[in-house]
Every structure is written in C-alpha cells, then in structure tokens.
Specification:
It comes from Chiloscyllium punctatum. This protein is mostly helical. It has 27 helices and three strands.
Length: 542
C-alpha cells in the first residue's frame, strides 16, 4: 500500500511540475524531442494541464478498481504493527531468545510473538524431538552464577509449549521419549519443581479438543424439533445443519495438518484434512444426486431452486466452504446439461446463481471472495483450499535459511500469521444449534459416493441427448477451487455401521409413534429420498 501511494505521488509530481519550474521542464522536453528527431509541438501550460488532467482522471478511474478496501487496509496495518522478529538467527540463538523471554516466575517479560512463532513453526526447520533435545542439553549444560535461573526459565518455556501446543506431545513418540529423558534428568538433579513444570503425563485428548466439542448439539431441555424429510426442511435449517457439520470438521484441523499439506502437497495420511475434503466433495455430490433423483424436469428444477435458497442462507451464515460445495454441485456439467430442467428455473434463480459463481470465481486469484471474506466478522468458515494454496505458495517462495545458514524468521512469521488466522476462526461461536437426529441423517446421506461416470449415466437417463434445442437463460459456470477433487469418503465398516445405527435410531424415535418397532412404507419412502439411488435394489418387503 505504501509503495502504491508513493508511486502515485511521484506520478503526480512528474505530470504536474510546479509553476517556478515550468519553463525549464518545457525547454528540456523540447530539447529531448529535437534530439530524437520528433516534431516539437509547443503547448501552453493551460493546454498541458488540461490534457494531463483528463489522463489523471482516467488513471484514477482505473486505480479505483484495484484500490484496496478499508477492511484490507486495516488488516495490512494490523500485520505491519505486529512486532517484527530479527531478520535471521541461528537455532541456538532463537532458543536462547525464547528462554530469556520468561522470568523466574514463568511470566513473559515481553511480547510472546517470538515464543509463539518458534513453538508453532520450529517443525519447519527441525523435528520437535530434536528441538526438545536442544532444550534438554541447554538445561544439562547450564552453569555459572545464573545456572538456577536459566534452568527454571527453560522449564517455564517447556511448560508454555505443553500448555499452548499440547497436540504435538500426543502424536510424536520420539518427542515423548525425549521429554521422558528430560523429566528423569530433572529428577536426578533433585529438582522436583522442575519435574512438575515439564511433566507431560497428564496430557489427554480432551485438553486440546475442548473447543471442538463446546459447540454442542442442542441440549435436551431446549430441544429443537425439525423434520427429517428433505421436502419439509426449510433452507435455513438445511444450511445451519450443513454448517454445523462443516464447522465441526474445520475445528479438527491443527497447525500440524496445515504443515503436513504444505510439505507433501496432498491430503494423504492426513485424516483430519482428508475428512474435510471428503465432506465438501460429499455435499457437492449429494446436491447433484438429489436433483437427479427426481423423475420430472419440473421436480428437478424445484430441488435446484431449493438449493439456491440454501446457498443464500450459507452466504448469510458466512460459510463459504459449504457454499462452494453447493454451487459447485449445481454447476456440475452433469446438472448444467439438463436443458429441460433449466427451462423451469426462474430468472431470479439464474441471477442468484450467476452472482454466487462470480463471488467464488478464481479470477484474479479469488479476489472477489478474498475481499468479501476480509470484511466478514464473527462466525465464518473460509474456503479452505484457497488458504491452503496461499500457504503452499508462501512456503515455496521464501527460503528456510538466509545469511550463512541462519533461519529465515520472516518466513516463519508470515506462515505463523496466516495459520493463526485460521486457528482463531475455530474459537468463534456458531449462531445456531443443531438437531441430533437431523445431523445423523445428513451424516449418512453424505457418506454416499458415486463415480463421475455413474453420475453422468444418471444424468443422461433423465434427459437423453437430443437435437432439439431449448432456450434457457445463460449461466456462466464457476471456476471453483479444485485443490483436492476426487477425494472420496473412505469409511471403514465400523464407522458406516455406526452412522447407519444412529440414523435408524433417529428415524424410529421420530416416526415410530406407537413404539411397536415399525414405520410405515410411506414414511420409509419419504425418508429414503434423502439417500438418492441407495434403495432401488431392495424389494418393497425389505
């Protein structure tokens, strides 16, 4: 921003010289024209400023389209105001700087920026087990008059690491071994207080997953009653429950998952990220199948319109990831080729679809989405693929080491600020509550998976190829993020059985009113609509 403002100022100074320098400017310009063999056309000062003024207006018009919004300027100022780390330090220098950031009582003596960047991002440089080993050696070899002070500061630094980033201690067996050695060393030295500070035996999963379960399903004393039938569900209810599933999946991602994707470039062997991708792809495919499940074009258009209304509610909820999935499903070629279905869509529906595809377009590196997302406050869910690509680009663009093999702290801080922004979103509170039974139904519905060939086969079965043309409003398909297309749900038999049992229990709880263990055939068929093409192989008695 500063560079752009400086460029504009220099341009204005160059194009509009002060009055005292006007003759010198014009004489110099004419002399250059003569040397270049160009015809000299002398203009009065009034003519010159008039012509240049019109150009300036044109420039301002062009710049207005690329000028950052107030929200983007505020965000840039916030980043610039963050305390900057040194340009480069060796690993030993960085560790010592972090240790010295604590006093003997365990309080930070300055901003915790350096400490947090180091603890979260050091695994980009060395494994966490080696990082802990260096702390162990620093503790063991501490000497001199300030030996006790240095040791207690090291232990407080480790305690801070355990308290703020506990997940790494639960997934890294080598780190666990080093911490056991560290604890034994402190015990042999007779430092029981140090042992308590570096003790990792009390770390349990619930200590760092509390935020994932705090957004609970509505309690029994305030039960929310909703229908389990797709045709009876309001777009708001559907959008809220899809957002519940999306946010629950998003909250399971940690900084280690982001690092894994940046290093490998894929979601393999990354269960949390793979589940998030599968959910998005499952929603997109479910939208397609729900439309193709209807026998007539008018009915398919009705379902299409309902999902447009769901998309509008998702936009209001600021859930851009599920919005991308729904719009991607509606604009899939297996759906967009249904010309007869499209002919039943209203102009308002087509207009809304175009607006949504424009918002999610990849043009100018998703500039429309980035602008809107930066202006959102409170609860919001980002398009994860866009931000992951940003992390990958930044990781590849900046080197890990500079200045004689010293760590590039600028790179670590930039990666840290972007990952921290995603992690902080997980702490927001959703503006809705979910119904457990509907969540069970949707969870199993999204477990379904069909190949692209199977979906196209269904599409051509509904509307075969024909030479008859149907006039339909133009609909520009979106260029949506395709960072992990093709990732399908990979659920084991135990998980599938669990989801099935939960769904069956929810259905019978809501529709077996006389509690005789049976529901009617009509109710069964209505519920089966949420599972398109899953029951056609069963006879009626089953």
């Amino acid at each position: 921003i500063t560079a752009q403002l400086q460029t504009e100022r220099l341009t204005q100074v160059r194009d509009f010289p002060p009055g005292g320098q006007w003759r010198e400017y014009r004489a110099g310009r004419c002399e250059r024209d003569r040397k270049a063999g160009r015809t000299v056309s002398r203009k009065s000062r009034h003519e010159y400023q008039s012509s240049q003024g019109s150009k300036a207006i044109q420039r301002q018009c062009r710049r207005r389209m690329t000028c950052p919004s107030p929200a983007e300027i505020s965000k840039a100022k916030a980043i610039m105001s963050m305390p900057q780390l040194s340009k480069a330090l060796s690993l030993d220098e960085l560790i010592l700087k972090c240790v010295q950031s604590f006093d003997t009582e365990g309080c930070l003596r300055c901003s915790g920026e350096t400490v947090n960047v180091t603890l979260m991002m050091h695994s980009w440089i060395i494994p966490s087990s080696e990082f802990a080993q260096k702390l162990l050696l620093l503790y063991r070899d501490a000497g001199g008059e300030k030996r006790d002070q240095i040791r207690v500061k090291i232990c407080h630094f480790v305690r801070y690491w355990i308290a703020r980033y506990p997940i790494v201690f639960t997934v890294d067996s080598k780190l666990e071994d080093v911490m056991s050695q560290f604890w034994q060393l402190a015990r042999n030295e007779g430092e029981e207080s140090h042992c308590q500070l570096i003790d990792t035996s009390n770390i349990h999963m619930h200590e760092w997953t509390w935020k994932y379960t705090q957004h609970a399903i509505s309690s029994n004393n305030k039960k929310r009653k909703v229908s389990l039938l797709f045709d009876h569900l309001e777009p708001t209810e559907l959008a809220e429950h899809l957002s519940y599933l999306e946010f629950k999946s998003f909250c399971q991602l940690t900084y280690l998952d982001y690092r894994s994707y940046m290093v490998s470039g894929c979601v393999r062997e990354n269960p949390a990220l793979e589940h998030s991708v599968s959910l998005v792809n499952g929603i997109s495919q479910w939208v397609q199948l729900m439309i193709l499940n209807r026998p007539t074009a008018a009915q398919r258009a009705e379902v299409f319109t309902k999902f447009i209304h769901v998309a509008q509610k998702l936009r209001l909820l600021q859930n851009f990831n599920t919005l991308m999935a729904v719009i991607g499903g509606l604009c899939h070629s297996a759906i967009s080729r249904l010309k007869e279905t499209s002919s039943y869509l209203s102009q308002d529906v087509t207009k809304t679809l175009n607006e949504m595809t424009e918002l999610l377009s990849s043009c100018s590196n998703y500039s429309n989405y980035r602008r809107v997302f930066s202006e959102c406050t409170g609860f919001k869910i980002p398009i994860l693929g866009v931000h992951l690509k940003d992390l990958v680009s930044l990781n590849e663009a900046l080197p890990d080491y500079i200045e004689d093999k010293k760590i590039n702290l600028n790179k670590l801080q930039q990666l840290y600020s972007r990952i921290l922004e995603l992690i902080q979103i997980q702490g927001s509170t959703p503006p809705f509550e979910a119904n457990k039974d509907l969540v069970h139904l949707l969870t199993l519905s999204l477990d379904l998976y069909y190949t692209e060939d199977e979906i196209y086969e269904l599409s051509y079965a509904k509307e075969p190829k024909t030479h008859r043309t149907v006039s339909v409003p133009p609909c520009k398909p979106p260029v949506v993020v395709d960072w992990a297309s093709g990732v399908a749900p990979k659920l084991d038999a135990v998980t599938v059985s669990k989801h099935v049992q939960q769904m069956v229990d929810s259905v019978f709880k809501n529709y077996d009113h006389d509690q005789d263990g049976y529901i009617s055939q009509v109710e069964f068929e209505k519920i089966a609509v949420s599972f398109p093409f899953s029951f056609f192989v069963l006879d009626k008695e089953r």
